[in-house]
Here is the input.
Amino acid sequence: MIRFTWLRFRAQAAVVFAALAVLAVVLAVTGWHLARLYDTTAAACRARGDCAAAMNAFASSDISLQSFVKLVLLAAPALIGMFWGAPLLAREFETGTFRLAWTQDVTPTRWLAIKLGVAGVASVAAAGLLSVMVTWWSSPIDKAFMDQWGVFTQRDITPIGYAAFAFALGVTAGLLIRRTVPAMAITLAVFAAVQVVMGLWLRPRLITPVHTTSPLNIAALQETGVTGNGRLQVIEPANIPGAWVYSSPIVTPAGQPASSEPATQACTTGSGQACDAYIARLHLQQSVTYQPASRYWAFQWYETAIFLGLAVILAGACLWLIRRRRSEELHLPHLHSFGQVTVGVVRK
Amino acid sequence: MTAVLEASGLGKQYGRRWALRDCTLAIPAGRVVGLVGPNGAGKTTLLHLAVGLLAPTSGTIEVLGRRPGSPAKPWPVGFVAQDTPVYAGLPVADHLRFGAWLNSSWDGELARRRIEQLGLDPGQRAGSLSGGQRAQLALTLAIAKRPGLLLLDEPVASLDPLARREFLQDLMQVVAEHGVSVVLSSHLIADLERVCDYLVVLVASRVRVAGEVAALLASHHRLSGSRRDSASLPENQEVIEESHTGKQSTFLVRTDDPIHDPAWTVRPVSLEDLVLAYMSQARDARERARPGLGVLR
Here is the structure.
């Protein structure tokens, strides 16, 4: 059964792994250049002392290729779900070949388990390879740009979880809907919805964030100003390297937002120094809610485990449904139209 | 005489509708059984229950002494599903691999020989085969398992008359060579007449009649004579179909006893007449029942 599953799957697998091989060559060549460029840029800027600007400039090297790999990594799990997952069972139902496959010595449960195993392993392997390649290629850029949370879903192990989940989701949709194209559409829609829920709602709640309050460094203030209704406006980004900052409002010692203070004359008409002096007297603080950089891998593992867990649950549900033969019973269209069939026999 | 397929009170329900009901059958070994009935009569449901693609709602079914769908294997039942599904994208040769890899009782030599005899190109994709060739390939997959029982669901329904005849001839050859029992469903009586020696008539989800073709033909008669009411016929003559003109009455009756009444002209019935009589009997019964149901609603 494994051999037959592979026989049917290998053409699809060949296309994907050939594309990955091409991408690997492109990334290897350009990635080697990037790594060299990073080293020379870093050495030169250290000598000149302008590393912030130099690294910023370096981070936009190969910008079109950067956008491309970002797109590939975002799309890959959804594509795996749509083109490997959804047709896995839906095509068997559409063409009726499940009636051929399920009436051999191999039981339907085993048949599905092997199909899930072969294509599932291929999905995880493809996503894993892609992520390894891209993570390596973009490592100099990531070092320069220092935004590991911004590329959290496109680096390291999370793409593996996404691919496994999308694949299992596609298989489940194909089993329930039994038609390839609608199953592909549902797979895409549900996968996108789950990603949105994960990113906006669940991921920020996975680990309780750290909360710190520190005095405002007046000398380093990025911007001060006056709001439309004459209130003080102080803007200062939190300066915690590699952190995922949820919020960083400037507050008074009483915990009120800085904008609750009036912008006195010192700030509306006075000089910048007068304004700074006024602000210093307010003893403003910065209240930061964030996940420290050290938690990056904890989040990677949690996220991957959640998606792998969902994939296992879906695969289990598919096996259970096949075992119960439920799906077959839900859908025998020619039997449901019985009432309208006229009784008669074709005479030859 | 052992039964290859034995059903007792077998029923299958979809929602509130019964696709098959109170089916009690014992199909003896070594027969070519025609399962005949109009579309939607429950033929496919019965066959799917027999191969374990469906689980019964009520009753039991045993095929070759075993309940279908139980994981024990090997289970020597060959099945050709409706529309003879094959993997369109795979060449003929890969289908033989499929059979070999998924079945422990696979006879590779038999399969290869059949493909050769049928003149199929092993490298040709199954999707580009003609309907007749596809059916032959599906039959090859079923027969190379060396089954004790072969179940075929409308295998010739979509074939042209020539391909149909070739397929049935081929099937008969297989039966002669391997002595396999066959259940073949169709709504084309002419096809079944050619190959079957046992008949099961299924109408409106119930078995109407089942038995050996020869015995069925011997026990059914067409009586014609001057007009009379069906109630006036003797107890042992079951009226299957009746028609009346102004002066004359014609009955199709079932009886195991000889008919002595000299008022009748007794003629034998053809298999087709017999099947049609059972089908229209069921239809008439439904039509009679319909107004009553309407009032109930």
User: Anything to note?
Assistant: The interface with chain B takes residues 1, 3-4, 7-8, 95-97, 99-107, 325, 328-329, 332, 334-338, 341-348 of chain A (CB under 8 Å).
